[in-house]
Amino acid sequence: MNKVPMTVRGAEMLREELKRLKSTDRPRIIQAIAEARAHGDLKENAEYHAAKEQQSFVEGRIKEIEGKLSHIQIIDVTKVDARGKVVFGATVELLDVQENKETTYRIVGEDEADISAGMISFTSPIARALIGKSEGDEITFAAPAGDKHFEIVVVRYV
């Protein structure tokens, strides 16, 4: 498996989720299965089947997170000498040239991406167009609604 780039914050969020899954969710589901078994016939026991389904999901997620954590490459953008260029972890203020509207994005790993919070995956079309560029550069990328044109206003490393 290849290295999975992740910000410090993203790695911490995954570790917290893993801790919650193992210390809270797993024991709760084991208890629910035990209670459902006590009700008798398992073939027609909806509570038992629901708990087993939850258990399958949680165990799969635990395995997925452990796999990612074993292959992460934590990138602390505050310690990278990017010389003003857009890199993984950078926060970029953009001006939409067509709409004369400013927006801010932070380039993060796939697990951290949340467009509503301004966090875009480094694999997204806009992030791929931004990486390697500097303040004052203009980019164009293909969006679902057609080509978008942006000017990079500010690049920050926080």
Give an account of the 3D structure.
The structure is a single chain. The strands form two sheets. A five-stranded mixed beta sheet has the order 5-4-3-7-6. It has two domains: 4-75, Helix Hairpins, CATH 1.10.287; 77-156, Chitinase A, domain 3 (Roll). The two termini are 29 Å apart. It has 158 residues and is α/β, with parallel strands linked by helices. The protein has helices spanning 8-38, 46-70, 125-130; strands at 4-7, 72-75, 91-96, 101-108, 119-121, 138-143, 146-156. α1 packs antiparallel against α2 (46-70).
Helix-strand topology string:
EHHEEEEHEE
Strand content: 25-35%
Number of helices: 3
Overall pLDDT score: 92
How would a textbook summarize the main sheet?
Answer: 5 strands, mixed
Could you name the CATH homologous superfamily of the largest domain?
Transcription elongation factor, GreA/GreB, C-terminal domain
Instruction: Kindly report the CATH topology of the largest domain.
Output: Chitinase A, domain 3
Which architecture name of the largest domain does CATH use? Roll
Q: Helix coverage percent of residues?
A: 25-40%
> What is the first-to-last residue Cα distance?
29 Å
- What is the count of distinct domains? 2
Characterize the overall form. elongated
Key descriptive features of the protein:
single chain, 158 residues, alpha/beta, Helix Hairpins, Chitinase A, domain 3, 2 domains, 5-stranded mixed β-sheet, two-stranded parallel sheet, 3 helices, 7 strands
